[in-house]
Amino acid sequence: MKLNMVGAINAALAQEMSRDKDVVILGEDVGRDGGVFRVTEGLQARFGAGRVMDTPLAELGIVGASIGMAVYGLRPVAEIQFMGFIYAAIEQVFSHAGRMRSRSRGRFTCPLVIRTPYGIGIKAPELHSESAEALFCHMPGVKVVVPSSPYNAKGLLASAIRDDDPVIFLEPSRLYRAIKAEVPDEEYLIPLGKGEVYQEGADMTIVAWGAMLHKAAEAAEGFDAEIIDLQTLKPFDEELILSSVKKTGRLVVVHEATRNCGLGAEIAAFVSEAAFGYMKAPIMRVAGYEAVTPMARLEDDFKPGIERIKKAYELVMEY
Amino acid sequence: MKLNMVGAINAALAQEMSRDKDVVILGEDVGRDGGVFRVTEGLQARFGAGRVMDTPLAELGIVGASIGMAVYGLRPVAEIQFMGFIYAAIEQVFSHAGRMRSRSRGRFTCPLVIRTPYGIGIKAPELHSESAEALFCHMPGVKVVVPSSPYNAKGLLASAIRDDDPVIFLEPSRLYRAIKAEVPDEEYLIPLGKGEVYQEGADMTIVAWGAMLHKAAEAAEGFDAEIIDLQTLKPFDEELILSSVKKTGRLVVVHEATRNCGLGAEIAAFVSEAAFGYMKAPIMRVAGYEAVTPMARLEDDFKPGIERIKKAYELVMEY
Amino acid sequence: MPTSVIGKIVVDRLQLINEQGEADASRLTHLPESVYNKFFETITLARLYNQRALSLQREGRLGTYASILGQEASQVGSALAFDPSDWIIPSFRESGVLIAMGYPMHLLYRYWMGDERGMSCPEGLNILPMCVPVGSQLTHSVGVGMGIKHRGEKKAVGVYFGDGASSRGDFHEGLNLAGVFKLPIVFLCQNNQWAISVPRSAQSAGATIAERAFSYGFEGIQVDGNDIVAVYKATKDAVDKAKDNNGPTLIECFTYRLDDHTTSDDASRYRSKDEVESWKAKEPLIRLRLFMEKKGLWSKAYEDEVIKKASEAVDAAIKEAEGFSQPQAVDMIRFTNKDLSLRQKRELEELER
Amino acid sequence: MPTSVIGKIVVDRLQLINEQGEADASRLTHLPESVYNKFFETITLARLYNQRALSLQREGRLGTYASILGQEASQVGSALAFDPSDWIIPSFRESGVLIAMGYPMHLLYRYWMGDERGMSCPEGLNILPMCVPVGSQLTHSVGVGMGIKHRGEKKAVGVYFGDGASSRGDFHEGLNLAGVFKLPIVFLCQNNQWAISVPRSAQSAGATIAERAFSYGFEGIQVDGNDIVAVYKATKDAVDKAKDNNGPTLIECFTYRLDDHTTSDDASRYRSKDEVESWKAKEPLIRLRLFMEKKGLWSKAYEDEVIKKASEAVDAAIKEAEGFSQPQAVDMIRFTNKDLSLRQKRELEELER
Ligand SMILES: Cc1ncc(C[n+]2csc(CCOP(=O)(O)OP(=O)(O)O)c2C)c(N)n1
Ligand SMILES: Cc1ncc(C[n+]2csc(CCOP(=O)(O)OP(=O)(O)O)c2C)c(N)n1
Ligand SMILES: [Mg+2]
Ligand SMILES: [Mg+2]
Q1: How far is B65 from chain D, CA to nearest CA, in Å?
Q2: Size of interface B-C (CB pairs under 8 A)
Q3: Contacts of A102 in chain B (CB under 8 A)
Q4: What is the mean pLDDT of residues C339-346?
Q5: Lower CB density within 10 Å: C or N end of chain A?
Q6: Residues A61, D175: contact at Cβ < 8 Å?
Q7: pLDDT of residue C1
Q8: ipTM over 0.95
Q9: Reported confidence tier of residue D69, pLDDT bands at 50, 70, 90
Q10: What is the SS3 assignment for D114?
Q11: Phi, psi dihedrals of residue D109, rounded to the nearest 5°
């Protein structure tokens, strides 16, 4: 069936909820309204208000309650309406979700998923366009996943829900309805921790994820580039990146988040150490500026555009 | 006068409060009790309860109130009792303190300082030993400073209080009483954004800050290493690091925080790009493990010890 | 000995003009008649501004917009009780509050067009930028209140938030701190019965939001939020109390959001036409008009004149807003910090190329 | 028409045994005498455990420790009202609660020795690890309550927190959610009058913490926290109510922290000897002893026997705790995730070398 990412995520949720009655959904407007992006549309009607819970406006409470449910034995899937509003719940993620297994030496675990739309793309008000993935990548115990297509959105979310540790599942709002693609009705899983070669190539390696993957690929036209769709940001697929970089000798990481201490830094640092000697050119990062993510009028100036990305490709090739 | 870091910070606070009556202190137990580490000892008696405010147990409220005071025109210095408890206030730091200037296009600013003890070192309970500096380094609008000695603690804190943007001031609890050193009574400022050459050397560059600076230096005995005390983590002193690395051709970054997406990644990524061709060896990071910061019994196994650090030095030298 | 009563709390509701426009004269004597004209004219202006914002959005000339239809009495009535030099801390739906405070409408439009310059408050006013993370502005009022106390100024803080925001931890920490430090703050809860699709009944099992104030050691009151006179009176009393150093007050304005949550919402998915209709009958302007007519303060001619003036002002504001140049990309960096880092300077150069 | 009363809240306080050990017989009839012995024996055990923990800390055999002296009635009396299969969510000061629930004392000691293994709750008990970030455990009770509801179990959740914790946003979001979803939770506020150096009066301007419950739509009550019978009765009623699907209850145990905040605190810096002395006179064991003596349930011989048994148990626990091997460094990585990443595997190897 042809689905956009909204449909694919909805299908994954429905599939997991029918498979396992311990899977429950909670968040603001996820029930009756089906979510502000309609991602949970129809699920409350189908599975009942006991399993698809509209909550009060309380991000801390939503995540804290999810932790309680996960520790109890359920598999909650919490929705935070936009990533810019997850900060109020960060103590719950860092100090509890990511630590419960360690703190109790395995007696209690925290198999929960936090879904949230992320990134620039819908010309929404302030703080509706954040790309704060790096914060969560820095926190031990937590996994971070970002789909780039309807197909991998379904397979990755199913894996995230079945994972026995907390997973932050970041949904590029720009892609929600941008791509319609064939998505199998039957169940399939895309393993966490594995990237995907989006395009093979010989001259340089490009690492990207989510919405920027498509910009990075668009900008790569005319280059013999190997493009890696990271899919899981934490832990990321070291082997895939290394084998590609050792082949190409060049690496460009593209992300929307501000550059300083972004995930691009970790990938560049890792590769520069692990593939030292293989590199024919400096590892380049194309990233958001050292600036507050602007409102709609300047959005497109903030996030790396084709020109900026191309320039980086040319630089590493000319090197 | 000879002071330890507690005394030096206390002196800086007293100095700034006498200089500018808009400087106020707030936090849990900072008044009557003088702070759990006695950093604010005597200040309430001297400046009054109106300027040294004991607050209820409310980190979000402490930082939110500080933002309100800063926007109003005061220069609040908030204390978060331990860095592990700052997470509840992260939305205030990221979504407000760091954005107020941008959001209002300069009409409102947020000159506030958040002081908090950080890092492993006092065998305290869980979450009293966090090193989460990288989270704040990733956030546009916010500065991050870490002193390593009584002397620079006083000069850096004075600069932080006078800075017109929000500053996260991280105090290595391990150093509070470890070093006693000469600290001038008279006022002096150490500029933010500038590192300090702690030791000159020719064969390799070592970058560290706070408590780890001393471990990194101890481990460097027998090496002809140039050691840089970063002092300001965000924005860090690119020029100082680059000029040193271009001279030595080798770089090791040492920090206590977990490696993945730590500040070491940014420094390594920056140098590998900006000093490509100068590097004689891969840039190495010595950092905390991919693990939840453990309780007292395993603390010393988590943070990089002399052996681990030395090993990295040897590796880059042997390369 | 066993159970002893250690506390009693009584929660009041204030209404001064009922839905038929009838008033309790005894309690209104203190109000000069010109105030009613001010009410009528400001509500009319705010409503016109709002209508035009909605149509501009439909025409693609404005971004996502949050309508204030139905809440004008709660917004305008409360705002007019403050002095221009008082501090106002709005949520994201406070267009009516800002207009009543004298905030330039063209800046408001500009803000909704996705331009930060729209939230650069003119000197002379102390209005913080609209706050998007719901509830997170509450504790800022505590700090501003502390500042006012520190400088010994005779000013009040008005902080606005919704029924949804009242479920956030920020509400609790903000009100508790305000009570502990006895700060000059008026907490204005705009209870419009909905938080997007979540009804007030699902937001909290508590009977009122107003009653929470007592557990923080100060007074709370619920007012008929569609009765602008009651809203004004309750707020004025709270502002005076604040300036007399008698601490904070929580006012729950009981009103209704007649439009969709924002222009990207479709409220018909989650609430009934009947409910909306029943509230339309209670909307604030009908009542104010009836009341003023009885007092001989309203006539068709007067209303026409007011509308004419308002439309001219709104037209001018839109013209000015649309006359703005596109903001410069460099501004996003220039306004992130006062002193730019080397990296920021490099990025500026890249942008200027 | 103007102001109408729309709400009335009455706050009660429960005491069943006064400081002279006198009881209201009529309200105690439901309690079998064996319960009083259980109270006496558990308080004695908890107190001995606590004494030894303090001396071990002084000898450097235990890390920073938070004493429960003076709070035993609030901790033990409430805990004994739960079944072992109920869920308990403690703060960091709940040693007495865990002991009363049957949590192995050697694990408690081990925890305070800085070893995560001490918080690996034995199967058969559902006690979450002690929570260090004050108040952040409150919303976990909501999720556990939702789980119990989801599975249709007849269980209750007991979540413990202090007066300081009641100022955190977590308190508000937790209680509000519990009210909205009518969850089987008993919120046990251990109001020991101090949050390190901050007295209850500076924590909130509200008269009681108990009264807040009403604004979340459920009952709150203050109990004399040094009267174990009152604490037990109030908690038992709340637990039964929870299991009958009648929703949450907030119980404010009004007690006192007789020792320093922790072994790294010096309370003499911020509170008077007199205050402490006045509360020593009200400590829970005196009262229980007097009451039991009147009932013929207490004798010196009995007490000696109880103490002897308790010391043996404590000695054994300490021996077992100190007999633990040093935890393995690899465990910090092995227990961070279920499936280890390549990096974690490399780090394990590095540690194993
Ligand atoms: C912290 C946070 N969570 C979620 C949102 C998305 N959102 C915007 S408005 C809104 C509802 C707010 O309800 P209320 O506080 O009653 O204000 P109203 O919209 O009724 O004016 C939500 C959920 C947000 N902006 N901030
Ligand atoms: C979020 C957080 N802030 C600060 C601290 C440091 N701290 C530990 S206990 C405590 C006081 C807690 O007071 P209360 O909640 O009354 O519990 P009590 O200590 O009286 O048992 C503080 C400030 C902490 N552990 N967590
Ligand atoms: Mg609302
Ligand atoms: Mg206490």
Answers
A1: 14
A2: 143
A3: 291-292, 294
A4: 97
A5: N
A6: no
A7: 47
A8: yes
A9: very high
A10: coil
A11: -60, -45
Burial C184-198 (b: 16+ CB within 10 A, else e): bbbbbbbbbbbbbbb
Distance (Å, whole) CA D174 – CA D142: 6
**Contact criterion met (CB < 8 Å) for C8 and D5:** no
Q: Cα–Cα–Cα angle for A79, A82, A86, nearest 5°?
A: 75
Residue of C nearest to B236 (CA): C341
A228-282, pLDDT tens digit by residue? 999 999 999 999 999 999 999 999 999 999 999 999 999 999 999 999 999 999 9
Phi and psi angles of residue D274, each rounded to the nearest 5 degrees, phi first = -60, -45
User: In DSSP terms, which residues pair with B26 in a beta bridge?
Assistant: B53, B78
- Ligand 3 centroid – CA C163 distance (Å): 5
Token pair 């009264």 is found at D211
Q: What SS3 class is residue A255?
A: strand
CA end-to-end span of chain A: 45
Ramachandran region of residue C231, left (φ > 0), alpha (ψ -120 to 50) or beta? Answer: alpha
For β-strands B75-79 and B52-54, DSSP reports them as unpaired
D108-146 per-position pLDDT tens digit: 999 999 999 999 999 999 999 999 999 999 999 999 999
Taking an 8 Å cut-off on Cβ atoms, the answer to whether B68 and C170 are in contact is: no
Distance (Å, whole) CA A78 – CA B264: 32
Q: What is the 3-state secondary structure (H, E, C) of chain B?
A: CEECHHHHHHHHHHHHHHHCCCEEEEECCCCCCCCCCCCCCCHHHHHCCCCEEECCCCHHHHHHHHHHHHHHCCEEEEECCCHHHCHHHHHHHHHHHCCHHHHCCCCCCCCCEEEEEECCCCCCCCCCCCCCHHHHHCCCCCEEECCCCHHHHHHHHHHHHHCCCCEEEEEEHHHCCCCCEECCCCCCCCCCCCCEEEECCCCEEEEECHHHHHHHHHHCCCCCEEEEECCEEECCCHHHHHHHHHHHCCEEEEEEEECCCCHHHHHHHHHHHHCCCCCCCCCEEEEECCCCCCCHHHHHHHCCCHHHHHHHHHHHHHC
* Bond into A235 cis (ω within 30): yes
> Which residues approach ligand 1 with their CB closer than 6 A?
A 28, 57, 59, 81, 85; C 93, 132-134, 162-165, 190, 192, 194-196, 257, 261
Question: Of the residues C74, C93, C134, which should be mutated to test ligand 1's pocket, given the most ligand atoms within 8 Å of the CB?
Answer: C134
3-state secondary structure of A190: coil
CA C254, CA C188: separation in Å to the nearest integer? 11
Residue B140 has pLDDT above 80, yes or no: yes
Full 3-state SS string of chain C: CCEEEEEEEEEEEECCECCCCCECHHHCCCCCHHHHHHHHHHHHHHHHHHHHHHHHHHCCCCCCCCCCCCCHHHHHHHHCCCCCCCEEECCCCCHHHHHHHCCCHHHHHHHHCCCHHHHCCCCCCEECCCCCCCCCCHHHHHHHHHHHHHHCCCCCEEEEEECCHHHCHHHHHHHHHHHHCCCCEEEEEEECCEECCEEHHHHCCCCCCHHHHHHHCCEEEEEECCCHHHHHHHHHHHHHHHHCCCCCEEEEEECCCCCCCCCCCCHHHCCCHHHHHHHHCCCHHHHHHHHHHHCCCCCHHHHHHHHHHHHHHHHHHHHHHHHCCCCCCHHHHHCCCCCCCHHHHHHHHHHHC
Tokens 């605190």, located at residue: D265
pLDDT score of B207 more than 60: yes
Angle at alpha carbon of residue C94, lines to C166 and A300, rounded to 5°: 100
pLDDT digits (tens, 9 = 90+) for D258-269: 999 999 999 999
The edge-to-edge listing of strands for the beta sheet with A196-199 is A196-199, A225-229, A204-208, A251-258, A284-288
